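May I ask for a sample protein chain and its fold as tokens?
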Amino acid sequence: MKTAILAFVALAAAATAGAQQKAAPRVPLRNLDEMIEMARADLATRLGGKPTEVTLAGWKAVQLPARVLRCEVQKGDEGEPLVAGYQMVLVYKARDYTYYSDTKAVQACPRISAD
């Protein structure tokens, strides 16, 4: 009985440790508002609108390779260093646009062209 309880406790501890490793990446929020405003201004400029017409649908903290954040590739190479940043979804005229930020600059991904 003690062995079964110890095994159960060990499994629970391992499961908890695994869940903690998959927690959301820690990204400093000190300039999130600035990145959102940069993305809104960029989208409005590219599509001929005003930043006030662009709304934020949502955002999340991410840790991705720098090349992914710059929209150079869709997926980084294994072992490539991760960079803290944000993924933001903006809406303009009922259409969603995804932006990535490395907390210093923003990039639309996929790239945006007016249609």
